[in-house]
């Protein structure tokens, strides 16, 4: 059974740009952008798998088709809103960015992008740990192998390739070190992921407690887990919990993207972040989109690249 629902987004909103910022690369096998520009994902809700397909109706309206048991529809709609950042008003960031000469044109080109957010703290932690000190392509390839090995495959009649449900904390906690290492993870990252999985499963690391804490306090809680430092904690809060008041420190990728966008413009990152105000974290997503734009990745359907990069 499939039902269609409508949700609203704070204007302006662009689904394609937001999904590009969420998935990073077209080789992402969890977050899909279809050739028609729709977003597809298989969610794991209440121990059941649910597939949804999101289409943009207009600048403020999204159509969400949910397959399966409709008893969880409201839960899935809430997750879709979280993942796509539909309720985020970015007027403060836009107001500040317009005064930065090299940034303003990028913000105009990417008008409508919202800050994407992983549907769970666990998924945010996994992505942050895997991406530690690796290039976007190398980390994406490892994440892909991890999902294929430990996630759940979902076949959808309307899609020529399977979708995957992101592997649970319980699954990674119980996995063998050899099995996890086979995906390309280092021994230290395997240990960190299993410590995080244990903390989440046991309740020692609690999403609600983090949500109720100021960003700096939340960072301290995350850094109590061995293997999570300030950069990783910031990425978890930014991409996993939608905290826009922070920006990843000493992020080599962000710095490279910053040079790409700003060119020869004189730069003091501390002054820049202060000028952008309380939504400075949006700079991270704009810089990511600038890099993807330069490599022709924006808007490329996920289905085109299936089978490539898996062993990269």
Q: How would you describe this protein?
A:
With 312 residues, this protein is α+β, with helices and mostly antiparallel strands. The chain has 15 helices and 7 strands. It has helices spanning 15-23, 73-84, 91-97, 104-109, 121-130, 136-150, 169-174, 177-181, 187-202, 207-211, 215-223, 230-241, 252-262, 269-276, 282-294; strands at residues 2-8, 32-33, 39-45, 48-58, 61-67, 152-154, 163-165. Helix 5 runs antiparallel to helix 9 (187-202) and helix 11 (215-223) packs across helix 12 (230-241). The termini are far apart.
Give the topology string: H per helix, E per strand: EHEEEEHHHHHEEHHHHHHHHH
Q: Please count the beta strands (DSSP E, at least 2 residues each).
A: 7
Q: What is the alpha-carbon Rg in Å?
A: 19 Å
Strand content: 5-15%
Side-by-side strand order of the widest sheet: 1-5-4-3-2
- Helical fraction equals 40-55%
Shape: globular
Q: Give the end-to-end Cα distance, rounded to a whole number of Å.
A: 38 Å
Major sheet summary line? 5 strands, antiparallel
Structural class: alpha+beta
How large is the count of helical segments? Answer: 15
Q: How much is the average pLDDT?
A: 91
Low-confidence stretches: 305-312
């Amino acid at each position: 059974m499939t039902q269609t629902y409508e949700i609203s987004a704070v204007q302006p909103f662009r689904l394609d740009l937001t999904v590009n910022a969420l998935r990073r690369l077209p080789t992402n096998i969890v977050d899909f952008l279809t050739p028609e520009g729709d977003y597809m994902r298989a969610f794991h809700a209440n121990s059941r798998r649910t597939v949804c397909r999101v289409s943009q109706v207009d600048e403020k309206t999204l159509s969400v088709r949910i397959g399966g048991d409709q008893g969880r529809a409201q839960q899935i709609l809430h997750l879709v809103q979280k993942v796509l950042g539909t309720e985020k008003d970015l007027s403060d960031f836009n107001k500040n960015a317009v005064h930065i000469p090299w940034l303003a044109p990028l913000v105009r080109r990417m008008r409508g992008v919202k800050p994407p957010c992983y549907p769970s703290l666990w998924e945010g932690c996994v992505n942050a740990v895997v991406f530690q000190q690796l290039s976007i392509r190398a980390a994406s390839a490892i994440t892909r192998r991890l999902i294929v090995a430990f996630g759940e495959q979902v076949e959808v009649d309307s899609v020529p390739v399977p979708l995957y449900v992101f592997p649970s904390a319980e699954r990674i906690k119980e996995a063998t070190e050899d099995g996890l290492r086979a995906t390309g993870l280092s021994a230290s990252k395997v240990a960190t992921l299993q410590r995080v999985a244990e903390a989440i499963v046991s309740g020692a690391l609690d999403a609600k407690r983090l949500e109720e804490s100021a960003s700096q306090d939340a960072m301290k809680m995350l850094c109590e887990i061995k293997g999570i430092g300030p950069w990783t904690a910031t990425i978890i809060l930014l991409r996993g919990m939608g905290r826009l008041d922070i920006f990843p420190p000493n992020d080599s990728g962000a710095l490279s993207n910053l040079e790409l966008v700003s060119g020869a413009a004189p730069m003091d990152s501390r002054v820049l972040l202060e000028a952008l105000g309380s939504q400075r974290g949006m700079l991270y997503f704009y810089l990511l989109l600038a890099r993807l734009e330069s490599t022709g990745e924006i808007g490329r359907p996920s289905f085109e690249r299936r089978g490539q990069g898996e062993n990269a």
